[in-house]
Design a protein that fits this description.
Elements (H helix, E strand, L loop, with lengths): L5 H11 L1 H4 E3 L5 E3 L3 H6 L13 H9 L10 H8 L4 H20 L1 H4 L5 H13 L1 H9 L3 H21 L17 H4 L4 H9 L16 H11 L21 E4 L2 E5 L3 H10 L5 H9 L4 E5 L2 E4 L5 H10 L8
Antiparallel strand pairs: 1-2, 3-6, 4-5
Helix pairs in contact: 4-5, 5-8, 5-12, 6-8, 8-9, 8-12
Amino acid sequence: MLGVDQEVIARGIEMKYKELGAKQDIDNQQHFTIEGVRYLEKIIQLPFQIPPVEQADMGDFVDRLSAEWPHEECPKIFAEGLGDNPRQIKRTVNTFLMLWKLADKRKAKLQGRIKPIRLAKVVAIQAVYPELYNLLLKEEPRYLKELEDYFRAASKEAKAYEDEQERQVTKPVEPPPALVPFLSRRGAGAVQRILMYQPKLSGQGANFAGLSPDQLKLYFTLTRRVESPQGAAFGIPLVFSEPQMIRIPEGKFLMGTTLEQAQQIVNESSRNSYEWKKWVEWEKPQHEVELSEYFISKYPVTNREYQVFVRDAKHTPPRG
């Protein structure tokens, strides 16, 4: 018995024997006289195509893939959004179960912050729409929450148009600008079904609304692929804008400049304004300062990281 993908093997046969089977017609067009499918027919006597799983049977099929689901609603998410390919479904479910066991072993660190239904949704999105997942991973995990809000708002708007009593809806729902290119591609429909799935019982930790940026990051930190560091000199890259902190022990240091240093700065500088001299004066006198222990970022904060901070903390940046 041979378990093969007929189309792949057929193309491989045609590529292997293309020089033997290539002929040109009177119009100088090249044709293959060796067809991969016909080649296989001479070897395989009883072909059998594994049928896709019917949507009506999908729930039972996924549910039987594991006897120990972390939550009874998890298999329904995979049944909703993974299509009908048995191999992809099994592979995705196995990935989810492995990650959940990993999260379960880290209870002391995660403190129950990983919810199985949310994790199932992130793993399912990673399987059906890897390009979108990579955007969420490398750019902004908060887009996941905004995408969920958009699908929910769009669904309510559609229902309002169907309702004779609520035909006053005139303002269209706009998706987040960064996600617009992804909403027109294949996979967007599956992501919508995954994100919109809501368990019958509330309070199951199924949605992403209300989660802080750090809470969202946990799901992507757990599901991201392991990547090799780009260079030892820069250390191991962390996820998103999480700073790599260094502990500075308590101690004393000299702060400011001496009178001689301040005068030298003024003499060697091309600036000679009153403001410049005043700034130099602020550095005097040099004095000893004692600081308690603190932490500081190992690398400078980038513009992107500062932008995330300004938005999430609702901080007002300085003028100029």
